[in-house]
Amino acid sequence: MFIGLDLGTSGVRVVLVRPDGNVLDSAEAGLLAVHPAPGWSEQDPADWVKAARRAIRALAQRHPLAMERVEGLGLSGQMHGAVLLDAGGAVLRPAILWNDSRCHAEAAELDAMPEVRALSGNIVFPGFTAPKLVWMARHEPQVFARIARVLLPKDYLTWWMTGEFGTEMSDAAGTAWLDVGARDWSDRLLQAGGMRRDQMPVLREGTGIVGPMRPDLAAELGLPADVQVVAGGADNAAAACGVGALAEGDGFVSLGTSGVLLAARSGFYPDPASAVHTFCHAVPGRWYQMGVILAATDSLNWLARITGADAATLTAELGALSAPGPVRFLPYLSGERTPHNDAAVRGAFLGLDIAHDRRDLTRAVVEGVSFALRDSLDALRATGADLPCLLAIGGGTRSRYWVELLATVLGLPLDLPAQGEFGAALGAARLAICGVTGADPLQVMTRPAIAETIDPHADLVDAYSQAHADFAATYPKLKAMP
């Protein structure tokens, strides 16, 4: 048996997987982020440990005999977070998370430095790890002076489990300290951010074995004494492993809290100016690229909060897909990454009329999110990515209207997976299987069964293409507003 653990922003999810890759059971434990100031987002790493403990124990209570047969545990988690440890391994302050924008000025400074984009393969976004540490040096110098190690969120759990300070390529690629093409820490990038190589965790590939779990912890969690902890992958890289997106032409679109359009790549093809993320994959010798929008279902949930109707009710009111609506929505409620790299821009409704109602606003929101994902597709194609079709995952895919709309806006067929477990936690378990058994990732990380393929509405493709062009032309005007 194998375990995959995914440390998300809102909770920890753990899956127990049979040797054939099928999921026996899963468990979850919730988490909350705190926001001490506007644009700030933090969590206490101790809460991650508590949540991981609860979720693993829940599986042990339900499946004690299966847990005694676990050979490996792989981890996945939220990217970019900064966990700061002193020389004794104590946490110096709450972790600063991926969706924290306090260091936008520091990110811009790093991004402008010579060689930074060329080595990292990416714009230095405000959410990345390196600018967080520059901010720390300026605003909390007494804390910064005590930093002995910096860990990413899932790697703090790895340290708790094994006592080893390590990370893997896909998570390290989102720090702006990694030479993403060479798959190694860059002394130039570290120097630019005021950091040292000895403060960095040991680098492994995602299938690399970190070591055995601490015997006392293994006993407490109902696991065998020799269970191996495998490095795992960043959340989207692990999700790609969970849905079998490893080869050129494989990809998925995720309608989650944020929106992701990911393309697996056979080589390193960076294009930082596009604001596409170019990262190491969690499997050796591979990379992936993705466009990221910061508010996908978050935009619909925001509308639900202010209208008093839940998201499912809102989308159910839309009926059958028709031509683009008269109201335009810019989904920049938290700023934007691809293609704008703009932490300051904010969202807007345009074209509102006194006759418009809740249904018009809902349609505008799901159209706006879909148009923003089309921006990401266009940016990915500019790097040479070829995506003949996409797997559609995430909570937003429960809306048939939204899936048909997205297929039409992207101009691509979307495959809907059959019911079952897939995604980051399963990907982490698959990385553990490969790490412990030596199995070929291409044999283990297969695509899920497809329940249905949603084709674009051919009669509406041109209308939505024009509507997207109008949407794209609106950003400069919105940016120019005081």
TrEMBL record:
GO terms for molecular function: ATP binding; D-xylulokinase activity. Residues 1-242 form the Carbohydrate kinase FGGY N-terminal domain. Residues 252-433 form the Carbohydrate kinase FGGY C-terminal domain. This is Xylulose kinase. Its EC number is 2.7.1.17. Belongs to the FGGY kinase family. It catalyses: D-xylulose + ATP = D-xylulose 5-phosphate + ADP + H(+). It comes from the Bacteria. Signal peptide: none annotated. One of its GO terms (biological process) is D-xylose metabolic process. The active site is at D235 (proton acceptor). Substrate binds at M79, H80. Catalyzes the phosphorylation of D-xylulose to D-xylulose 5-phosphate. The record marks D6 as: Important for activity. Keywords: ATP-binding, Carbohydrate metabolism, Kinase, Nucleotide-binding, Transferase, Xylose metabolism.
